[in-house]
Amino acid sequence: MFEKVLIEKGVLDHPRAISILEKVKYKTLLEIDTIDDVFNRVKKPYLQKRSNLNLFIGRKTGSLVKEAPAAYGESGHPHYYFIHAYNCFYECDYCYLQGHFHSPDLVFFINHEDIASEMLTIINKTPDHLKPCFHAGEFSDSLALSHLSGEISFYFNFFKNHPRAMLELRTKSANTRALEDLTPLNNIITSFSLSPEQQIREHDLKTAPLKARLAAISRLHKKNFPIGIHLDPIIYNDHIVDEYQQLIAELKNAIPLEKINYISLGVVRFTKDVFHQMQKNYPNSSIHAGEFIKSFDGKIRYNRPMRLWLLQKIKDLLVHSGGQSDKIYLCMED
Hints:
- The structure is a single chain.
- The protein has helices spanning 15-23, 112-125, 146-149, 152-160, 177-180, 197-203, 210-222, 240-254, 272-281, 304-320, and strands spanning 2-8, 26-32, 55-58, 65-67, 79-82, 85-86, 91-92, 106-109, 133-136, 166-171, 188-193, 204-205, 227-234, 262-267, 292-294, 300-302, 328-330.
- The protein is of the alpha/beta class.
- It has one domain (2-330): pyruvate-formate lyase- activating enzyme.
- The strands form four sheets. The protein has an eight-stranded mixed sheet with strand order 4-5-9-10-11-13-14-17. A five-stranded mixed sheet has the order 2-1-3-8-6, with no helix packed on it.
- Helix 8 (240-254) links the parallel strand 13 and strand 14 (262-267).
- Helix 8 (240-254) packs parallel to helix 10.
- It is globular, with a radius of gyration of 20 Å.
- It starts with a strand and ends with a strand.
């Protein structure tokens, strides 16, 4: 239930907007000229998402596809992310969105043809020996509300026609219903962010439980959908090795580790603004027990020896359990 749905006048008759309005529940429907006139203009406390969440529907303007930061994905190929939505109804206490936007309200953009056009421009200018990789889920969860937003089938069709490019759908959801009626494609990878169950309960508020995510991984794998895994963010505690050993054993029961397309490892990290927001919004989070420093890229992280120990230890656990070393990469590390 949304408090308000605010929709741009120019998309009132658009089939995607009509479809979304038919699926969502809301108290008030308001017409606006543009999303930019309203969204993010007045600061709305992040935690109001618990009781007062609005939905915006409209067109994304400006840059729709952006170059990803270094070490965002597997090395050797150019990486980009595209913007099809803003914000997430999940509430991970470390989430960078709490310091990125001035509002937790959700935004669905419906001009996917414009996004695809920018992607095509990038594909056409990329040398043939490189694989342009596009990522969904930078500013929202790519699957959590996909049954409402309805864009998954559009992107499957686009990447079916452009097999040299790759699409990654990043999620902490178990909502795979938009995928399961589609034919798997080798160049579309559904990647699940996983943490030990206790850490999901403590830090990944409102997200799908570990068992539900593992069941979704198993379902998709059995239907031959390519799978990626992100063990990210890794948050230190005194039992971390045992917790990740158990997590990897459970993951192995859902899918053979050698069948996973890639596994990324990354420690918890923040920009300065996000770190301050997290301290304000979640003062009792156990994350605060960690010792953080300003790192090589200006982000706040554990010190380098500790990061490297954590990453190597978990990589060793993966390899010992059957994971392929050359399919494991470190995310957002120099």
